[in-house]
Amino acid sequence: MKRTSYNNQGFTLMELLVAMTVFLVVIGLSSGIFIQTLRSQRVITRFSENMNNITVSLEQIAREVRTGFDLPPSTSDPYQKLTFRNGYGNYVSYMLLENEEIGSIGRCESFQSAGCQLAGDFELITSPDVDIENLIFFIQNDETRPPLVTIAVETLIDIGATLTLQTSVSSRIID
């Protein structure tokens, strides 16, 4: 009787199934981590864009307040709209504008004190991609020191995530 020898260089079906299962688990975990990383990257990018846009807007407001005068009197409640006269003597107003569920910071400049009453009078100074949730102005204006304006802006970054930026600026001109 002749004996045949089998060459056992292949894998059994059970070994292949175990290897494929381990491979699929590793791929599943890796893809979950990759998808979460992409989501985090989008939120961080939106955070950075919003912060840069709001910082530029706050700097524009601060620049005008520094050279402005006729600021409103001090109150315990914050202002929703800031109106004063800029260095050229024009009346300038800043306020939150709500357009189709998106908030933006608006600026209006007029030769008359009553010139900035309607939302249509204001120009947007923030990007339409930035959703401003809240804009308030705290004013300390007494006779002993220059007026101090604190501006607080809250923006929506992602669902349930907001960014609040605040700056204080003092007018160089004493009212």
The main sheet comes to:
4 strands, antiparallel
Q: Write down the overall mean pLDDT.
A: 88
Percent of residues in beta strands: 25-35%
Strand order of the largest sheet: 1-2-3-4
Number of strands: 7
- Detail the poorly predicted runs: none
Query: What's the alpha carbon Rg, rounded to whole Å?
Result: 30 Å
Order of helices and strands: HEEEEEEE
Number of helices: 1
Distance between the termini: 118 Å
Helix percentage: 25-40%
Structural description of this entry:
With 175 residues, this protein is α+β, with helices and mostly antiparallel strands. It has a domain of 88 residues. The chain is built from 1 helix and 7 strands, in the order αβββββββ. Strands 1-2-3-4 form a 4-stranded antiparallel beta sheet, covered by helices on one side. A 3-stranded antiparallel beta sheet has the order 5-6-7, covered by helices on one side. It is rod-shaped and about 120 Å long. It starts with 12 loop residues before the first helix and ends in a 5-residue tail after the last strand. The mean pLDDT is 88.
Offer a few descriptive terms.
alpha+beta; three-stranded antiparallel β-sheet; transmembrane; 1 helix; Prepilin-type N-terminal cleavage/methylation domain-containing protein; rod-shaped; four-stranded antiparallel β-sheet; membrane; 175 residues
Structure described in brief:
The protein is of the alpha+beta class and 175 residues long.
List the helices and strands and how they pair.
Elements: H1 13-66, E1 81-85, E2 91-99, E3 102-110, E4 123-124, E5 131-140, E6 148-158, E7 161-170
Antiparallel strand pairs: 1-2, 2-3, 3-4, 5-6, 6-7
Pfam families: N_methyl (PF07963)
InterPro entries: N_methyl_site
Keywords: Membrane, Transmembrane, Transmembrane helix
